[in-house]
Design brief:
Shape: globular
Radius of gyration: 22 Å
Helix content: 40-55%
CATH architecture of the largest domain: Alpha-Beta Complex
CATH topology of the largest domain: Aminoglycoside 3'-phosphotransferase, Chain: A, domain 2
CATH class of the largest domain: Alpha Beta
Order of helices and strands: HEEEHEEEHHHHEEEEHHHHH
């Protein structure tokens, strides 16, 4: 059932703001035409006082969200519901957003905006903490699902919102800055290399990045695109009782993406958990082998053109050299006397990696 104390928000909730009570939650639910409240529990995923995210799970049927920094609009909700409908048609369980009788998704209560969504009563893969073999099998199902979804829905009802990986047509998070996140990550890495006196290496990497981006700019507008959920990680993957892929949650980052760019960003990384030296060539070989296996699985379910296959190689270099986990690994390794020589050699190898 849950008591009032269990429904209190966490540390980020402003002291001068009235927290939603059980009565507030039920009144808000009623505005959408539903009654309930036998069981209410709160998941507070707030990131700060200016980014409140209170998620009330009601009777395992609905999620009522209260927030003060919505990243969506009424049009965005409709856009996402169309995408969620495609995923449902595809056979995955994905919670849709629920409008009121007047067709509105957002309501305002006590200085917060709220909106309602379905609740899918399945665990995430992250919550299951699966053994490695089962986790690998489930991730392969995710990869195959992404590829099969792209094959079925490429160039269908493309959204105006670009996906989180988009390089040239920027997503909403990157527009205020005017450059994509990977370029931002890359510039941080170059700045650190220059601080260390590695100017020549920084220039070689920058030249490689410029060359690949110019090649991509020449073709990316003609490459097939698809609207994806866009954040396919185990925190957002729902699993059934047999630990098979059952659905997806969290569509906040969904958007239109070049299909092969989406594929490149599902490829892997540099064994970031291995923080002792293992050899730059060995580390790169492992990463490229992981990308090759991922590529093979994706292309077994998606009929890529030769141009797409070539572009996938370019997008993969960007993901490998400029993705957030990779750049964090590089920057952390450059702090270490033991690992720094290996990271510098690894970056040099990336700068010289053949470019088709």
């Amino acid at each position: 059932m849950g008591n009032e104390k269990e429904l209190l928000p966490g540390e980020f909730f402003p002291a001068d703001m009235k927290a939603p009570s059980r009565e507030d939650v039920l009144a808000a639910l009623a505005e959408y035409g539903f009654a309930g409240g036998e069981d209410i529990r709160l998941i507070d995923s707030s990131h700060g006082a200016n980014d409140i995210r209170l998620n009330y799970i009601i009777d395992n049927k609905w999620v009522l969200r209260f927030c003060n920094a919505p990243e969506m609009t009424e049009n965005r909700m409709r856009e996402l519901n169309r995408l969620i409908g495609r995923y449902a048609e595809f056979g995955l369980r994905c919670p849709a957003f629920i409008a009121d009788a007047d067709g509105k998704f957002f309501h305002e209560r006590n200085g917060l905006l709220c909106y309602l969504a379905e609740y899918v009563d399945l665990p995430t893969a992250y919550e299951l903490q699966l053994p490695e073999a089962e986790a690998d099998a489930l991730w392969n199902e995710v990869l195959e699902s992404v590829a099969a979804f792209a094959e079925r829905y490429k160039n269908v009802d493309l959204s105006e919102t670009m996906g989180m990986y988009s390089l040239f047509d920027l997503n909403p998070f990157d527009k205020p800055i005017g450059k994509d996140e990977k370029q931002q990550n890359f510039e941080r890495l170059l700045a650190r290399l220059r601080e260390l006196g590695e100017d020549k290496l920084a220039e070689r990497l920058n030249a490689k990045n410029g060359l690949i981006r110019e090649k991509l700019k020449a073709v990316y507008r003609d490459l097939p695109r698809c609207v994806f959920q866009g954040d396919e990680n185990f925190s957002n993957v729902l699993a059934d009782a047999e630990h098979h892929l059952a659905g997806l949650i969290d569509f906040n980052l969904a958007g239109t993406e070049v299909v092969v760019n989406q594929f490149a960003n599902l490829g892997g990384g540099f064994d970031e958990d291995i923080t002792e030296p293992i050899g730059a060539k060995t580390r790169l070989e492992h990463a490229l082998a992981d990308y090759a296996k991922t590529r093979q699985r994706l292309l077994s379910r998606y009929n890529a053109t030769e141009t797409e296959k070539t572009a996938l190689e370019w997008y993969t270099w960007i993901a490998l050299a400029e993705g957030w986990p990779q750049v964090c690994f590089f920057l952390e390794g450059l702090k270490s006397g033991a690992l720094r020589p290996e990271i510098l050699e690894l970056l040099a190898l990336l700068a010289e990696l053949p470019c088709p």
